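Data availability (excerpt). The following record was deposited with the supplementary files.
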Amino acid sequence: MRLSAIVLTLNEEGRIATCLDCLKFADRRIVVDSGSTDHTQEIVNQKECCFFENSFKNFSDQRNFALEKASEDWVLFVDADEWVSDALAQEIKYVISLPNQSAYRIPRQNYFWGKQLRFCGASNDAPLRLFPRQSGVWRQAVHEFYDTKLPVQKLKHHLIHHTTRNRHEYDLKLLRYIPLEVETMQAKGRKPRMGDVWLRPLAKFFYLYLFQFGFLDGWVGLQYCYLSSYYDFKKYTLLKKMSRP
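Predicted structure:
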């Protein structure tokens, strides 16, 4: 079975080369860019990958656009800040050779500000990223998910996920993600509730820091739990603002 590896990008000149080098085991590497102004396209072209541009509306639309560009039997979605290890590559090649088709979740080993997160709920992170082409569709504007009727299994080996590297990068994510979060909540009929702006973020912090043992990740764990609660604060503040008549 042949495999397309797909990466979505926006100004990823600092990470895209390493990401693409980890995907050499795929039969085809596809990059879909949403308007980079740095050297992302130049680097992709040097790696002899297929490069497409598509104006960004939301994450599901971008991923579905990318799916249309794939022609291989199987598709693997990898973000530009994720690396595929040799062990994971071998496991992927094995499972796509099996006669019974499934979709696969891939656990992620998360690094926040350059430090590995072992707690803070990080062990539960395993997005669905590997599946036969034309077996489903991506849904939801942000925190998108692949909607398929295939049985879903989980791979053993991890994606290495180098998520937010500094506060500036985190703030850029807020600007991009939160409006889409609010759009998704409003589409589902979600209205502001008492306690959303203050109590919910506070509860999020204590849940991650205490009940998910974030304190065992030290200073980085504290920062992650704080910024996760801050994310909720900003999200529900915007929802409240956008819901005013």
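Summary of structural features: Residues 110 and 126 are 11 Å apart (CA to CA).
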